[in-house]
Amino acid sequence: MKIYGVALLAVCFLTGKFLGNLLGKLIGIDSDIGGVGFAMILLIGSSIYLRKKGWLIPETEKGIFFWSSMYIPIIVAMAATLNVKAALSGGFVAVVAGIVTSFACMLLVPVLSKIGKNDKHPKI
Amino acid sequence: MDIIEKVIAKNGLIFAFLFVGFVMLFSFIISRKLLRNKIPGVAIAILAGLSLAFLGDQKGIANIPLFAGMAILGGSMFRDFAVVATAMSADISKIKQAGLAGIIALCAGVTVTFALGATIAYFMGYTDAVSMTTIAAGAGTYIVGPVTGTALGASSDVIAISVATGVMKTIFTTIMTPIIAKRIKLDNPHAAVVFGGLIGTTSGVVAGLAATDEKLVPYGALTATFYTGLGCLLFPSVFYLLLTLLGF
């Protein structure tokens, strides 16, 4: 049943968020640190395990793939609910700082991408 | 009319499904018929979303009662849930290979953003360490900004600027990523992991990668999700102290 897939996704999501908040608390910041990342790793790990066991059948996977195909519409909805006006009226400094820093980081992508790439002995 | 409004008000999320469905359909038709697929339909849909946000205020289009459901569909709960689901199509060996590069990218992203953000803030008239750190933190993500500002006791207008800086970054990343992708060789999972770590704004990274190549989304999202945490950790502590040591 598809709901098994959705439930698997939900348990990974909640556990990941829990770990993220726990890590935040341990470090002393009251926020979620990498919750989504932990959840993604849990989902990848558990799906590999369950597939080996033969428990993760295509019908179950469909429940997860439905949500993975929903993220673009969700991102469109998110874009439509951003505070675009404030971003532009937040002063010139917000526009300059926002654009310059992002652009500089984008230019670093090809430089840092070389790390660990096509390495015959990939570093951990 | 009254009945229609009542039905939509009570079923906001469902109406949001319908509305976003229309936006997607409309965007893909424009992409195919008018632009001959030169600009992907997803990119047009996201741009359409950003333009629609102008109709409202803090919550974008969701400020209009009819579209209140958009705030639920576009909120962090559904966003994170759907982004986690994309991990199903990620290749674990590629993540392992890019792991080290991803961690370095995270550290480099936060540091470069701090250095540039603080410098820009200084030259634009915010010369005290608290304001400089807060605005630079906002250039990290729109969550790091207010968290840092509150921790350091920044004034509310500086915190507002830091949030605006973060939102500006999200919008810029969303629009710019598909345009610049080829030039920065952002066309493989490895580069996407690095990109996510360097940019860090999960919403911008995910939206920008979706508009570039859907397959790259899970890789970028994986590293970007750690950025806000790392930023909240470093900005109010190490980076702030660094500025005070430098005499600001």
Notes on the structure:
The complex is a heterodimer of chains A (124) and B (248). Chain A has helices at residues 2-27, 35-53, 58-69, 71-80, 84-89, 92-107, 109-112. Chain A is mainly alpha-helical. Chain A has two domains: 2-72, no CATH class; 83-117. In chain A, helix 1 (2-27) packs across helix 2 (35-53) and helix 1 (2-27) packs across helix 3. Chain A starts with a helix and ends in a 12-residue tail after the last helix. Chain B folds into two domains: 2-74, no CATH class; 93-245, no CATH class. In chain B, 75% of the residues lie in helices and 0% in strands. In chain B, helix 6 runs parallel beside helix 10 and helix 7 packs antiparallel against helix 8. Chain B is globular, with a radius of gyration of 19 Å. Classes of the chains: A mainly alpha (124), B mainly alpha (248). The interface between A and B is large, with 80 and 116 residues.
Structural class of chain A: mainly alpha
Catalogue the unreliable spans of chain B.
none
Number of domains of chain A: 2
Category by helix and strand content of chain B: mainly alpha
Main sheet properties of chain B: none
Q: Whole-number radius of gyration of chain A?
A: 20 Å
Radius of gyration of CA atoms of chain B, rounded to a whole number: 19 Å
**Unreliable parts of chain A:** 120-124
Order of helices and strands of chain A: HHHHHHH
Count of helices of chain B? 12
Q: Give the N-to-C terminal Cα separation of chain B.
A: 60 Å
Q: Helix share of residues of chain B?
A: over 70%
N-end to C-end Cα span of chain A: 37 Å
Mean pLDDT of chain B: 87
| Chain-averaged pLDDT of chain A | 84
What is the H-and-E element order of chain B? HHHHHHHHHHHH
What is the 3D shape of chain A?
Answer: extended
Tally the helices of chain A.
7
How would you characterize the largest beta sheet of chain A? none
Number of strands of chain A: 0
